[in-house]
């Protein structure tokens, strides 16, 4: 089962909710995670069940980062706000760095998110199942 995380900064939350609503079917068989407020907003508008972590500024990005460090996540959709400074910028940078360490597909804008989700729907993420299967203990 694919494991996916959703994160959106405040001014990107509507875009995230609209996107997930449009592609809800594609996410229904995955194990889903999110930061606190993003997850609440998505669950209000969809039937998806999401395991929510802390809100981003309170450590949610770091909690998702811990899953990335263990190579547990297969896809991250992280709609960042490029025009607003965040108090927890170091956490955001750390999360994206860990995605690069593990080679995890991560979308930071809606155009990339759409391409990755379409690719996931086609089955292009099968290699991630192998990552899980052969992960060292
Ligand atoms: O700040 C965030 C990610 O950096 C998102 O956190 P929330 O989903 O709790 O708003």
UniProtKB/TrEMBL annotation:
The active site is at 61 (proton donor/acceptor). Residues 1-137 form the MGS-like domain. It comes from the Bacteria. It catalyses: dihydroxyacetone phosphate = methylglyoxal + phosphate. GO terms for biological process: methylglyoxal biosynthetic process. Keywords: Lyase. SUPFAM superfamilies: Methylglyoxal synthase-like (SSF52335). The keyword Lyase applies. It holds the Pfam family MGS. GO terms for molecular function: methylglyoxal synthase activity. Gene3D superfamilies: Methylglyoxal synthase-like domain. Substrate binds at residues 9, 13, 35-38, 55-56, 88. One of its GO terms (cellular component) is cytosol. Its EC number is 4.2.3.3. Belongs to the methylglyoxal synthase family. HAMAP family: Methylglyoxal_synth (MF_00549). NCBIfam families: MGSA (TIGR00160), PRK05234.1 (NF003559). This is Methylglyoxal synthase. It comes from Paenibacillus albicereus.
